[in-house]
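Field guide to reading this record: the first block holds the primary sequence, the second block holds the structure written as discrete tokens, and the final block holds curator observations. Each block starts with its own label. This record concerns Glycine--tRNA ligase, catalogued under organism Bullifex porci.

BLOCK 1 — SEQUENCE
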Amino acid sequence: MSEEKQVVTMDKIISLCRRRGFIFQSSEIYGGLNGAYDYGPLGVDLKNNIRDFWWKEMTQMHDNIVGLDASILMHPRVWEASGHVSNFSDPMVDCKVCKSRFRADQIDLNAPCPVCGNKDSFTEPRNFNLMFETHIGANKDSASVVYLRPETAQGIYVDFKNVLQSSRVKIPFGIAQVGKSFRNEITTKNFIFRSCEFEQMEMQFFCKPGTEDEWFPYWREQRMNFYKKMGIHPEHLRWHQHGPDELAFYAKDAYDIQFLFPMGWQELEGVHSRTNYDLTQHEKFSGKDLTYLDPETNERYIPFVVETSAGLTRNVLMALSDAYDEEKTPEGDVRTVLHFHPQIAPVKVAVLPLVKKDGIAEYASKLEHSLREDFVTFYDQSGAVGRRYRRMDEIGTPYCITVDYQTLEDHTVTVRFRDSMQQERVAVDQIVPFIKNAMKNYKRV
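BLOCK 2 — STRUCTURE
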């Protein structure tokens, strides 16, 4: 196969996502809604597979991390304690002519409005809170105000004591959570990279004060290895340490894992040493004791926290960007292929009858049904088998099984590998262990 590669652009990814049912614009028939997206049949499976891959890595593979699913709606005092009510805002300006809104730090206030071209039309910068506000109960007043959570971490902090007392965990331990967050982003852009509604995969690791410097590099290594296990190109990943101007006031140290998206290097996940700021704040605002009694030393303290915070929706965009390829085949045409790791591919196995007649389609259909217990499968009997291979390549299906006339004679099928396009003859009764072994030993080329 030719080594010539095409440039991956966001337009190509967006086109593929819409064409093949990965991601759609929300409310598209009404003109769409900026910053909101719907995940189609393939997109929801891709997203769920990445989520499950993360969940297994963080909980099942560690003996000191437990899970949580906190409510989206929380007591408004939570966000006062965390600082979101007073500090979670961006400086914004409006154009007095066309009413367009911009972040003050991303626009030249002395230049003409980039939308309407009028000069000296900007208002004075003012802070714009990024939290979505709503009301709970019958009356809409200040007493009924609640917020859609802008992050999932605070749910972990306010349930810290409940988890501690009910799960028999001991310091050091972590609490993991996957859930939706909402931010009233004015400048949504780059497809699903920055949107108003998104999902996060976060883990807060609670440790004894003074040991956070040991756990911080440990979790940095763990999180980078996760993406390599997912089959992401190592050269598309790098670390960025927060400088003094970037570091949050409560953080001791912070690193971002950056990925080379089509629009350049951008944050994918943060690993932060957060000290004990959050638990201290919630103890202060709630009046509840959030200290930990060390059973070995009888010492009482508020734990320090090392946080790993990844965007699930950004992980989806990363997986699509890293997997997307346009390859020139030996026949001289170009195939579009998504080189997903089999663990996250929406469809694992496609079953394709060579022809519809002579009992081949019936055999293939029966085989596909028998494989559903072990794999997410797809059956396709429409069109030339070469075109069907291309359709499966385009959605990232790693293995295609072709049923032909020889199958009727000796009960063997052809297994085609997506990445190499090589084929191997396998006995039908060995298909399940053969595919499982191929998935287990998969290496991206």
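BLOCK 3 — OBSERVATIONS
The first helix runs from residue 10 to 20.
The chain has a mean pLDDT of 93.
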